[in-house]
Amino acid sequence: MSADPAPFAYDGLDRTIHEKARLGIMTSLVGHAKGLAFGDLKRLCGLTDGNLSRHLQVLEEAGLVAIDKGYEGKRPLTTCRITPAGRQRFLDYLAVLERVVRDAGEAADASEAIPIRIA
């Protein structure tokens, strides 16, 4: 028996990141150290302007992303990037998610080994 009384609680699944749209945003940004333009991020994640703005606001308030507003020529340009703290929290989150996948695989394998009896 495990020393952990609740081995499947997965406390490290960060609720801020775990929401589907925010998970997509974080996944997109983790591979782009210099950040992504708002429009590119919107396209990659399949979100509307308003939806992306709201999720970015949540991530920014949590310190996971930084949003820089500037200009490219005379056109406004909003760039979103993951912060160092955001990168670490995301990597920690992924480690817990990997544990979930591993535990589920082991449980599925164990259940196949148990014969099912029908009365």
Description:
The protein has a single domain (15-109), classed as Orthogonal Bundle (Arc Repressor Mutant, subunit A), CATH 1.10.10.10. 16% of the residues are buried. A hairpin with a 2-residue loop joins β2 and β3. It starts with 14 loop residues before the first helix and ends in a 6-residue tail after the last helix. The chain is built from 5 helices and 3 strands; from the N terminus they run ααβααββα. Strands 1-3-2 form a 3-stranded antiparallel sheet. Helix content is 55%, strand content 15%. The protein is α+β, with helices and mostly antiparallel strands and 119 residues long.
Provide the low-confidence segments as ranges: none
Oligomer state equals single chain
Instruction: Specify the CATH architecture.
Output: Orthogonal Bundle
What fraction of the residues are assigned to beta strands by DSSP?
A: 15-25%
Q: What is the tally of helical segments?
A: 5
User: What is the number of strand segments?
Assistant: 3
Give the N-terminus to C-terminus distance in angstroms.
30 Å
Biggest sheet architecture: 3 strands, antiparallel
Percent in helix? 55-70%
Number of domains: 1
Strand order of the largest sheet: 1-3-2
| SS content category | alpha+beta
Question: What key phrases describe this protein's structure?
Answer:
119 residues; alpha+beta; Arc Repressor Mutant, subunit A; 3-stranded antiparallel β-sheet; 5 helices; 3 strands; 15% strand
